[in-house]
Amino acid sequence: MAVGQLVLPEFNAIAGLRIGTASAGIKKTGRKDLVVFELAEGSNSAGVFTLNAFCAAPVQVAREHLKATSPRYLVINTGNANAGTGTKGLADAKKTCTALAELTQVKEQAVLPFSTGVIGEPLPMEKLLAALPNALDSLTENGWAEAATGIMTTDTLPKGATASCIIKGQKVAISGIAKGAGMIKPNMATMLGFIATDAAIEQPLLKQLLKEATDLSFNRITIDGDTSTNDSCMLIATAKSATVSEADLQDLATFRQCLISVMQALALSIVRDGEGATKFVTIQVEQALNTTEALEAAFTVAHSPLVKTALYASDANWGRILAAVGRAPGLENLDVEGVTVYLGEVLLVEQGGRAASYTEEAGAAVMKQEEITLRILLGRGQVQETVWTCDFSHDYVSINADYRS
Q1: Which of 21, 190, 214, 300 is catalytic?
Q2: 29 catalytic, yes or no?
Q3: What tens digit of pLDDT does each residue of 162-212 get?
Q4: Fewest CB atoms less than 10 Å from the CB: which of 165, 179, 284, 392?
Q5: pTM here?
């Protein structure tokens, strides 16, 4: 089960966007596993994709189509990643686009495909194509909740977020869903994420906003340090409400903060639902020279199996934290006597060793909590960055050992 409460919100409907969900039986018979997004004409879209060299066939096709034209439809399947499938996988991804384009009377390039699930197995095209009409028949402005369930793989709960702000006297809505619980160290975004707004935003600015919000949300989380072959995140603007532009800096700042809040909520819900997670952990690195070294230190601690298993055991083994900080890339000439570490409000480390005020009882009391904050003060500068992660439990091993069975 997830750490803390993960409850889908009452989504703001996004004018100009409809979502349909159907069952194709790709991995499990009867399970909703196919989702279609329909974007109104005049919508703009931006995307970020995995940096994994073995990126999946749908990632390659989606990138190509996004460069060619503004998408009108997104099609997502779960249960099969269509990754590591060679030329046949590419052909299948394109065939999916062609089939949906024919059903909706749009160009093939106006359809973007997305897949998630098992790597290396052929996509069951007959099942997928047969279910496309059902997905189209179910299109509705209120389809967010069903879609959030329809894109899940090892997730235990669906993930969604919604918010609104006032731009030029008009309400501007933002809603989004995401999936992900394992193979999470998204070197760009999350496993799959789809966020939409009814604002009117030109594509170059939309792309910039997506990158900025991604860097402060999905690029600040990790479950296990593995970057997926299928990571994709889309931001859609349907142009049915107020215009957001660089001409009005106040409106732009308001919208940017609203977007970041939605994307951070989605990102943190992925960490809370990490495979086998029992602890939600915030790692805050302060007094760094620059952003790069702050993030390197935070991620090195977050990825450490020794730190993560100590968190699971509620063992305040602070030596593992020091060891991780000490081997973080880029921390040249680190003065260890200047490093200070806090576990919650408990001072763990100062002047190169255990703090004189520290007791095992105080450390253990914090480690038993479901939500833990670890602060690492490097004593080198003024930059601060935050990364979110979880612990490693026995269940993480079991889930991934049994994933294909």
Answers
A1: 190
A2: no
A3: 999 999 999 999 999 999 765 556 554 446 999 999 999 999 999 999 999
A4: 284
A5: 0.93
